[in-house]
User: Which sequence fits this backbone?
């Protein structure tokens, strides 16, 4: 009985990992959080929701060390970096939902 419980737990962890669509590049260790934004778009039946999040700080440009985009809904959405990123002073992150789903992401940028 106990082994089934453990098996179930392991399976859950695996499923969570498979469904995880967080984007994590570079490192946030010892980094300073220089940008944080939460994106929430509601779902529209049969529609793919997309959102571009652009970060750039013209007054105080700093080289980005790490980027994290966390899927707060644990959905099947995708996050990709379309320009800039780690090693640049700017970044564009594109969020794309599954058809018929919404988007709920938190973007964090570390320098
Ligand atoms: C740019 O960086 C400065 C210093 O860290 C900060 O005070 C300012 O809010 C930043 N601006 C933007 C648009 O992030």
Assistant:
């Amino acid at each position: 009985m106990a082994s089934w419980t453990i098996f179930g737990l392991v399976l859950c962890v695996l499923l969570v990992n498979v469904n995880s669509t967080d984007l994590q590049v570079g490192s946030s260790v010892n980094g300073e959080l220089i940008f944080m934004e939460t994106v929430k778009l509601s779902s529209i039946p049969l529609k793919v929701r997309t959102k571009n999040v652009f970060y750039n700080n013209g007054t105080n440009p700093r080289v980005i060390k790490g980027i994290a985009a966390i899927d707060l809904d644990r959905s099947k959405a995708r996050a990709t970096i379309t320009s800039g990123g780690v090693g640049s002073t700017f970044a564009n992150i594109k969020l794309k939902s599954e058809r018929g789903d919404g988007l709920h992401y938190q973007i964090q940028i570390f320098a």
User: Anything to note?
Assistant: The radius of gyration is 17 Å.
